[in-house]
Specification:
This protein has 15 helices and 12 strands. By secondary structure, it is of the alpha/beta class.
Length: about 375
Amino acid sequence: MKKKKAKSVALLIESSNAYCRGMLQGIAAYMHENEQWSIRLPELERDAPPPRWLKTWKGDGIIARIENEQFADALRFSKIPLIDVSAARCIPKLPLVEIDEAGIAEAAFDHLRERGFENLAFCGEAKFKWSTLRQNAFVKRAADAGLACNVFQPLRSSRGRASIDRETKELAKWLQSLPRPVAVLACYDLKARQILDICREIPLRVPEDIALLGVDNDEVLCDLATPPLSSVIPASRKIGYTAAQSLDHLMQGKKLKHHIQLIGPLGVATRQSTEILAVEDLDVAEAMQFIRDHQSEHINVQDVMAVVPVSRRSLEVRFRKIVGRTIYQEIIRLRIDRICQLLVDSKLSLAQIARRTGFDSVEYMSVAFRRAKGMPPGRFRRNQP
């Protein structure tokens, strides 16, 4: 039998950052589970122009992060099946697989609020549409909770060293103007690293004055930061896997069920930059600390009350006012977050996960998980590439 020719697929995705490398890993995972493709992967930088060979390339499919008009012009009238993985949406008619920015904002907000922060801020990069979407979602989430969010808005200036120096000075001035303690969500880890550098120079203490949270969970950048940087974990592998699956359907002549697919984050990788409680109510702070320290044990509200010497009614009212959830809801939420992490990052059985997260049985854990996530834990694990 004549060997079937492998489909030729171009991956127009930069490999210079952890988020995009995660997408590439997800694409590889799908390809290895299904049909092997002949991959063309040019070396691209962020906001780079399209490769010259693209004009005459006769491949079978493309997955592209279309971030600028040059790239859009090169692909706008392409007859080749194409999946976009950029929030820029330079070609709105293309099928899109991307981060759910509302999910990123929700994960960041919950992480910072569970530490008691009422002063919130966002620092972004206006030139990136995904940063603006992330900002808007975070500001809205704060507003829905009755909180204001201070946003860094750099003045427009020309490119070059002078522009970078000017923005650094503006950013330093903005950081100094924020009420303290404050929690800052940076649009991505590189921006968070810039803020850390400025805080050392001013100086401002992290996390005592400013708790700092990034996005992308670039482990090298985060672990080399001083202090190590907490970061929202995007499901970049799942985004890549889903994009590859969608492209495969298009190359087979099938129609996609969903034109736009938004993938929520996996959670938050907690490191020293947010490891602090900013709660003036000492009883609520003690309750929150106890729950966090014992979240994997079989604790209940009575256990919390045993270490906080006030009436249950008083603590419940104050706890809900500050945290936005009841004590019981906070215990369950943290345990569900831990289950998600173990489902994604480990090969532990459901019974082992149930024991490690304080549930008496897999059945009880599954009921609580389904109530929180809308699906059983087994399906949640299977949905991860």
